[in-house]
Design a protein that fits this description.
four-stranded antiparallel sheet
Length: 124
């Protein structure tokens, strides 16, 4: 059983920074790709960033490009999302997702496993 757990969310002021961590545990059965998504009430889960199994390729939503950075430590089975210059529209519950097979980085419904989410609130 694979489990994902996010941490690091909280309340931050506009222009501030937050670092989210996703810890993967359990039997992953080999290398895996990871993604970060966010969701606000009444809206579909939105792609934020993704990183391939080696960490050599990263993908970002246009809305966060240049402000967010995704990275991973395969030795520790962790993925980090560094969020800088935060804006009120970044307020959401942030989820990390894991995919072991054919990967569509930007499509939330193509991920096999999810964490429970962590709230990020940006106050103006």
């Amino acid at each position: 059983q694979i489990q994902l757990e996010e941490s690091g969310g909280g309340l931050v002021q506009v222009g501030g920074s937050v670092s989210l961590l996703c810890v993967v545990s359990g039997r992953t059965g080999g290398p895996y790709h990871m993604g970060w998504f966010r969701q606000t009430p009444g809206k579909e889960r939105e792609f934020v960033a993704a990183i391939n199994l080696s960490g050599g390729n990263t993908y970002y939503a246009d809305s966060v490009k240049g402000r967010f950075t995704v990275s991973r430590d395969n030795a520790k089975d962790t993925v980090n999302l560094q969020m800088n210059n935060l804006k009120p529209e970044d307020t959401a519950v942030y989820y990390c997702g894991l995919e072991r097979g054919v990967w569509y980085p930007r499509l939330w419904d193509k991920y096999d496993y999810w964490g429970q989410g962590t709230q990020v609130t940006v106050s103006s």
